[in-house]
Amino acid sequence: MKSDNMRESSNVEDRRGQSSGSYGGRTGMGMGSGGLGLLLQLLLSGRGGSKWLILIVLAFMIFGGGFSLTDMFSGSKTTTDSQIIQQEGTQTGDLTDAEGEFLSKVLASTEDFWTKKFQEEGRTYTPTTLVLYSGATATNGCGVGQAQAGPFYCPGDKKVYIDTSFIRELANRYGAKGDFAMAYVLAHEVGHHVQNEVGLMDEYNQARQGISESQANQLNVRLELQADYLAGAWANYVQGEGLLDQGDIEEAIQAAYSVGDDTLQEKNYGRVMPDTFTHGSSEQRTKWFKRGFQYGDFEHGDTFSGSIDI
Ligand SMILES: [Zn+2]
């Protein structure tokens, strides 16, 4: 991405380097990729006193909040209310490190794009705040953000949370290299904010009431694919501004592919379980991103009616 002359956003909170020692007292349930296994172990062992723990973990999994890029690890970003402390970061539009500066510029371009798009619809866009953190950080409504949860959007406080070490993880663990891979990740999370701003998240939460788990998963997939579409629409804008480098779109497509549910499950569990998909397959995610890139509008981004296999 040709980011040299792009402006930085003023909506960045830099919490990196702040102590996360206050989270030492959390329940100790790392709900990372091994979390479900641990839960099963507890259920099977039936040890006295573990029941309450199981209930708490289940509550975390159900009410955890937050929409992440992959969700494979998202259970780990939650904890009890008593452990949530308010952290105020440095408000800055002048980050000095390359990673922070790049993300701040990408964020600024999402602000320019969505402000324009909302205006066309007679609406006003209120930008999200990007929180950069390391290790763990408090959210308002989504428990404690944990680095291993990956980037996520918290609808409660309308902020996007990114541990900048994820940039290296994206390249090394997910095989998605290049600056535009990370730009796509941020644009996807901003896409969730756009969904929140237009009231779609409220509708989504209402629609989730009283439906089965697999139906809820399907609904979640539609929400996630739309965030991919919105990221694609933003990429269309970036292209129009002449800011794309050769290979950028391929980097984003590779990133969308690498966080598809089937690809992640194959990698983590050695098998694919379509019923448990929450974000869509690699093919679906890349297709909706490409569609957004093609049209760059709201109109073609309806992932809620009709087939998601386009
Ligand atoms: Zn998402």
Terminal Cα separation, in Å? 28 Å
Structural class: alpha/beta
Number of domains: 1
Biggest sheet, strands in spatial order?
Answer: 2-7-8-4-1-3
Radius of gyration: 19 Å
* Major sheet size, sense and barrel closure: 6 strands, mixed
The total of beta strands comes to 8
The residue ranges in which pLDDT falls below 50 over 5 or more consecutive positions are: 21-64, 72-87
The number of helical runs is 10
Average pLDDT figure: 82
* Shape by Cα distribution: globular
* Beta-strand share of residues: 5-15%
SSE succession: EHHEEHEEEEEHHHHHHH
Helix content: 40-55%
Say which molecules are bound, naming each kind only once. Answer: zinc ion
Question: Quaternary arrangement of the chains shown?
Answer: single chain
How is the secondary structure organized here?
Elements: E1 12-14, H1 35-45, H2 51-63, E2 67-68, E3 90-92, H3 98-120, E4 129-133, E5 136-138, E6 144-146, E7 152-154, E8 159-163, H4 165-172, H5 179-197, H6 200-207, H7 213-240, H8 248-258, H9 261-269, H10 282-295
Give an overview in words.
With 310 residues, this protein is of the alpha/beta class. It has one domain (12-295). 46% of the residues lie in helices and 9% in strands. The protein is built from ten helices and eight strands. The strands form two sheets. It has a six-stranded mixed sheet. A hairpin with a 4-residue loop joins strand 7 (152-154) and strand 8 (159-163). Helix 7 runs parallel beside helix 10 (282-295). The two termini are 28 Å apart. The protein binds zinc ion (ZN). The site of zinc ion has 7 residues, from strand 2, helix 5 and helix 7.
